[in-house]
Records
---
Amino acid sequence: MPDRAPQPVDRLLPTDEARDLISLVRDIAQHEIAPKAAEEEGAGHFPREVFTLLSRTGLLGLPYASEHGGADQPYEVYLQVLEELAAARLTVGLGVSVHTLSSYALATYGTKEQRVEHLPAMLGGGLLGAYCLSEPSSGSDAASLRTRAVRDGEDWVITGTKAWITHGGVADFYTVMARTGEEGPRGITAFLVPADAEGVSAAAPEKKMGMKGSPTAQVHFDGVRVPDSRRIGDEGQGFAIALSALDSGRLGIAACAIGVAQAALDEAVGYATGRQQFGRPIADFQGLRFMLADMATQIEAGRSLYLAAARLRDAGRPFAKQAAMAKLHCTDTAMKVTVDAVQVLGGYGYTADFPAERYMREAKVLQIVEGTNQIQRMVIARHLAGPETR
């Protein structure tokens, strides 16, 4: 049995434009992203030049309106673009998802004047965003955040520290949730803060097990003054905006997880069909064949789940429960598939000479970001059985 080269995912896309878009993304992934992924991840290099290219080609604003620099693509298509990018390098796929999340508040809740002023540069002008909700003492309990914004005439003065911020220190703008009123979720307001505003700084990036090319850092706001024109939505609406953004962002994480899992499966299949033991390819052995079959089945199930949620979103129907399910299933699948891929490669899977170990390290963070998978189970259960009694 000859070794098999990975085959592109056979996608059911809604338009010829979407098929051309996926073809463009695959070309960029093959020639600009994948060849440098292992070396740059090992060196902790953030590929800003790739994000500049993606912005220039219109790939940083896919699900947003073309009148503001977006591409008018449905989430069904946008998420499959994310999957392709994440399969080539998670730092890039997740980075695009985070940028989309960071642009969501202004694109969805901003005034017409705000959208006209800011969105073209955010979506197609080379800027890169970061989303600032979590803090050192408030992760899953995001409504207890302490970063405060105090009104001073026509300005707001923001003081506090955000934690676990993807693109912290390299972003051009931060979407920041800060407390402007009472304790709890009703006292939080959203702001668009330029990264070069006086008083904005970032700590050294966290030293992580994976995704070393994607900086994750605390971001400090030390009396940062922003005009009221950079407040997004109404005062006290910020937490609702944050949760709405996360419903969509979780679908981005799900798509990225399936991309990583698909890359790991492709690596495992290629190795298993080429590696000879006992006079034949190891893919001939039933135990290993069944592993590959289970990996492929779980990936396909995850892809179907995130696409079903995306189609609900595109139709304007509620999708929060399905987004939580997709995030939960797809990221758990990525973890299981990448562990199995390392096992298929045996000793080689444990070395940095092959990408399987990198996929395994990267998959872990997807079970944590944008709501841990324990939080996703809580969200799903609330949809099924109602809020918890206290």
Note: The longest helix spans residues 238-274.
---
Amino acid sequence: MAIVLGPNQYGKAENRLVTVTRNGAVHTIKDLTVSTSLRGDLADTHLTGDNAKVLATDTQKNTVYAFAKESPVGEIEDFALRLGRHFVSTQEAITGARVLIDEHSWERIEGNDHSFVQGSNEKRTTAVTVEGERAWVVSGVRDMVVLKSTGSEFHGFPRDKYTTLKETNDRILATSVTARWRYQSLGGADDQTTVGMDWAKSFAEIRRLLLATFAAKHSLSLQQTLYAMGEAVLRDRPEVAEVRLSMPNKHHFAVDLSAFGLENDNEVFYAADRPYGLIEGSVLRDDAEDAGSAWYTLPSF
């Protein structure tokens, strides 16, 4: 029996980066968490401890901060592409890089040019994978909490001796949306698929479509809502090849008030944080290009 080294990668996780852009008295901030990981010809460091091909994770961290100074961070997709392409093009042993970025929300305090209040826990995200001349961009949103107080049903499910859940024709539907969408891939210098992409506009429109569909779709199941949200994005945004969604069902149970002589007509609820149903799925074009390494955690996945 032989023992061999399997897929591997290494990097610097969760570098906290805050930049301040000063345009006279008006300031703008970017608050990011940046993670980098590299892969390639790295067998020597695992098998013999020879680090000649290992770009230190501390160097990766320093590169993030230096890049933020050398040119404006801009949109997180562009920043991640610059970092990933830098690592692959400057390190002979490195054949692939992935850069993950979460952008944390801050809102300007009204009437003040340089004071801010932190927004919700919702985060804009991107995951950029660079392999040689090709790149894949998977952007998204995380911790986007939504609720509709009616327009949701759940019934017709199988019942067995362990089933206690009652069918309902009117319930609260609430979830914390994690949505990730894969853009058409970026090839070499001649690939114009997403060259000049307005990442901010694309993000805003996709987020709007997700929210509008959640609100408008009369839901017979959270699965049906998930598919409708992904479908709406693909129908309206040709730059997107695939949408993946993870939507935990944030259950709201009507409280039994009969002991107090009161009738609860879907007005008083108990919000349960666990256990919860976890609904996940992907929606993609039937002619979508190969995802390549867009979704990978390790090279073979």
Note: The CA atoms of residues 92 and 286 lie 37 Å apart.
---
Amino acid sequence: MANFAKPSVPRFSVDVYQNEYLPEGGREVNAIVTVTATGGGTLGGGLSPAAPDGRPSAAVAIMVDCSGSMEYPPTKMRNARDATAAAVDTLRDGTHFAVIAGTHVATEVYPGDGGLAVASPTTRHRAKQALRRLASGGGTAIGTWLRLADRLLSSADVALRHGILLTDGRNEHESPEDLRAALDACAGRFTCDARGVGTDWEVKEVTGIASALLGTADIVADPAGLAADFRQMMETAMGKEVADVALRVWTPVGTTLRYVKQVAPAVEDLTARRTEAGPRAGDYPTGSWGDESRDYHLCVEVPPAGLGREMLAARVSLVVPQPDGSAQNLGAQGLVRAVWTDDMTASTAISPQVAHYTGQAELAQVIKQGLDLRKMGDFDGATAKLGRAVQLASASGNADTAKLLSKVVDVVDAATGTVRLKTRVAQADEMTLETRSTKTVRVKK
């Protein structure tokens, strides 16, 4: 495994897209905030062995479902071993790592001494040898896997901590409350990508894990695709350079921040995750960053003002909160403004960016509603919701989602959302649409 030259820390920038003009008496201000990080790990070829402060760069825990169902078909367990080996091969030298076998209990497979190994040609070889011990048998209690991953990851003094979790079944050997408690305990301590293999797992469980731990979720319907997916996940993890980045939003007296949502590359409501950060300011977690760009939708309610008045509705910056309560400012800032005018043309115009992402958020919502109604047997309701989804996907140019929808409905007229439910739908197609329903297409600015 090659060593890579140390890349620089990403530079962050913030751009605000909005129509700042309000009619007389207008109170709602909407803005799309684009955050971009450039010059970090991904463009430089991957994570370096040391972070900017001299600490080792990262620790990764790979959690592999080894419950009894992983034996059906027998190739599934072999594919999981091959995928884990591919992920181990993708680790950069100097990265701390561990492999966990998950059943109704969690077991350290490698290194197995209660700590983490440090990636090198020798430890990667030993880890792949240890994967032979991955064997199916037992139940599924994902909360125990996450808690063990947290203990192992926290044993290393590193800049970034990340998990990769694979499951093929439902979390049947612990209560939903136990899983929720584990997620609450791990939130903010490490990020985690979650994958469901096959079609016997619960979409809401896998997507809920990824959402709580600020990672990605996806389906790998064919186990033969696991190795490529694990390799890609690990390459992305190796490209992260800054952990625990928060979107800090300050609003003046008299305003109410109604919501903060990530809207690209996927829809994620961050409103309830606010941490107070001083007078009139709050931090919203965004996880780890490499070279990438994400979009956020802010909605602010401002006090009404007279025509010609102008006010700062919100100030957005990027920070890394510190254990002592302080915060490292990443040097990027954006301003959201409100201007009251009697120019009807100006005040009634909708920002193209706001309109686009409002539609993308609705698209994710109506897909979930439509699939839920279909499962409940309300086919008229499902047709209406999924028809609206087809209309929104077509209008916004979200070709990937449109293609997934076409596996569930026959499209008569995309522009009007006229569809017919298919009488027979492959379970993998339905689960893929549900799992990927929050993925959005970027607006052309």
Note: The longest strand covers residues 327-340.
